[in-house]
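User: what does the whole thing look like in 3D?
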Amino acid sequence: MAQKTWAEKLEGRIPEDLGREIEIFSTQMELRRREEVDERLFAETRLRRGVYGQRYDNGQRHDGVKNRTLPYDDRPTKGPETMWDAPGMVRIKIPYGKLTTEQMDVLAELAEDYSDSISHITTRQDIQLHFVQIDDTPDLMRRLAAVGITTREACGNSVRNVTACHLAGVCKTETFDVTPYAEALMRFLLGHPDVQDFGRKFKPALSGCAHEACGLVNMHDMGLVAKTRVVDGKEQRGFAYYVGGGLGAIPHPAQLLDDFVTEDEILPLTQAVSRVFARLGEKENRGRARIKFLVAKLGIEEFRRLVVEERAQLPHDPQWTAYLDDLSDYAEKPRRDAAAIDASEEASYSKAFLAWRKTNVRPQRQDGYAVATVKLPLGDITSDQMRSLADVAREFTDGHVRLTVEQNIVLRWVTEADLPRLHAALEAVDLAAAGAETIQDITSCPGTDTCKLGIASSRGLAAELTRHVGGLNGDNDEALKGLRIKASGCFNSCGQHHISDLGFYGISRKKGGRLVPHFQVVLGGKWIGNGGSFGLATLAIPSKNIPEVVRRVTGRYVAEREPDESFTDFIGRLGKVEVKSYLQDLTEVPAYETDPSYYSDWGDPREYSMDDYGEGECAGEIVPLVEFGLQASEREVFEAQLYFDSGDLAKAREMAYRAMLTAAKALVKTEFLDITDDPDHIVTEFRNRFHETKRFHDRFAGAKFASYLFQAHEVGGNGGRPEQARERVEEAQLFIEAAYACYEKMSTTGAPA
Amino acid sequence: MSSGATSALESPEVSVKLFVVDSTGVRLEELIPVFHRWIKEDLLDDELQIDVANYEHVPKGPGVVLICDKAHYYFDVRAGRAGLRYRGRREARAAGAEAVTRAFRSALHAARLLEADPLLEGRYRFRTDEVEFGIYDRLLAPSDVGTLVAIRPELEEAVRGLYCTDDAAIELSSSPKEPFMVTVKSGASPSVEELLGRLSAAKG
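Assistant: Here's the predicted 3D structure for the full assembly of 957 residues, as structure tokens:
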């Protein structure tokens, strides 16, 4: 018997809360198809479900000669200037990059079924699928949910993926394993009411130590660095707590909010930070809405004072510390007993194995075990490779892998004795490339390949540079090998160019009336020390000259560096003026007639143009929290109508009542953030704040609409006679209209909304 | 049995891959300007052509992909075998044997364009004695013998119409975790042009 739908096939395997969220999203899609939800609101709704736009989804594409309209079917948009049928991107949050082999199998399937058989690992340990149809997204989400993955809040103005060191728990230099804390933070913040009203996204990161790079805390909105201290002779765990870091056009280093926050305080403190950000963060100007601008505006002292004040007022939540009882559950168990590699076999190993072992393998804290890095070209892995890698992980590891912020995958708990066999298994599926975390391991965001904001082809450049670096000056120079190259398609820094030795971000310049793709060259950023310092932007160079920039700069470093001088220090010593003069001739663009290749980007033969450049969705839409609440109430009344139509009158009554509660709660929340989901609480607060004050009264109908809620509440939601179901649904509709009218009045009179 | 025949061939996600005769002449990077030109000159009938995705850096991967609204065209090197793959994405254009025939027609049409493309200088020729047919729909077409049994009559009908013979062998070629795939092997290897001619005649 054929399965009819994924929902049916996966019945019983999808956690109830995730299943309900996906159903809600499906309903929202249906409402948007009927144009019963505003496109702006729907855009932010889908973004918060990880469903992103993609280049050319505005229906415009430049073919190298002229702008062409892509004649998609005439359907409602899925956001401002965003065609419904245009393929888009789905971002899948993988908290701290940890994946089970079962999850890998499912991801491989999804990439094949809904995308183009490629899973793209991002610089924040997410996985992105491109060219996905929005109509496929509910099923995609169901299949993810069945293996415990959600896309919720992967995009939009929300808390993004919680990232952490990929070596957490096995690292020789970590203070302690941050994994359980990352998990707790993720669970606590996901869908939390206090993180729903941000003006911009909020990215958290955790690091096990201060000196390595893995967690990149210095460039995050909030970051935790593991620390311990001794109190009364006992070791106490905690974290240095940072806020306000970020890259973007102008990078901000994170500020120290508190030098030592005990482990039981990190969740409430984060809640307090979130509340301050939601309350005082910029909402109108998205270019200044990240928390880094708020911290800079207030100063860290004032920001700290506000957070401490907010923390003192928070109602206690048992979730803050509940996870601390389960810390030991996160201890990983290796598949095999530790075993050292057989030294007597050393001479028999292939060159390829030795090269791979040198760059891709590092010993674990636990003797006899190693971490092996699978270096992925541009962060891409095919579905066939993903499945094979899952099999490899089953055989050699504890059954997990972790994604890294350098767009790779690591296998942990491999016994050292197994390394030759592991290498052979990886080689069989083309995943044994050496050079991980070296100059050959170039990071790139999607850039103009798929991103709506991309200005130049960062992936094209990265692919080109990858071909070049193998033969660079001093290929065998150890100092050169450790350098990092990172490219972003625009100034938004998804490729993390600021914290690499050689960074590039896409820009454009005009020459003889034609646009020429360029990259701004950023030199001397610091990867270690959690993204310790930012590089210097030097000058704009045409894309086609960037490989020569790399050749020259690295060549000079090899030739002129002092013993043990880092690249950052070397660039600092040379100074911006000297670097600029050294590269100045590369800024020249030949005339189009002399060399038209400069007027196309890497990997794209079209003559370069920005005419089809779309509106980006990185920032999401600024939608006040109350509008989400009112939209949710509309969705619920729609569901009530569906129940009524199907003859389930009890459910119709109950859902209509719930819709009124949701609308009332949305209004109350504009003044009282701590409103709970308890119906009595909502009705009481609504009565006191909106009914008694007559703010909810209609000019002609007076208290009529409010009375619908009170009456329904009195009979206990689904009480009443069956024939009253239709009445209840209609009342709910009117109540919601009145709630919108009330919100409108509040907005125009300047009352809090 | 895993699914009904009609259901599996109602999926829009049918695929046909034609392998090149000589893969030593294949250079993925040269397919990029070719597909961009197809978009510019609107060379694929019935397709809204959108963009080109380049995965030449991924070994044995999807290669270079022409992204369209209702289907994608890959020049892929999956499993180390270079070829042109038509892959339906949404809104099934037909069902049953007609769905198979339409997928073949789309793949053959694209293959003919590649064979004749001036940039490729006639180095891309396609063999037809072995073709891969697939359904990228794990709900309707799980990768197992049950699916093959269910679709075999209609698949054979379509293949017979195409090859004008009953001797084509159809075998399941995918593992349970992969998308459903079969290889269709025929004793003859008519040209792409010839097969398209047969399909046109049958249609007419």
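In plain terms: The first strand of chain A starts at residue 51 and ends at 52. Residues 625-749 of chain A form a domain with the Four Helix Bundle (Hemerythrin (Met), subunit A) fold (CATH 1.20.120.330).
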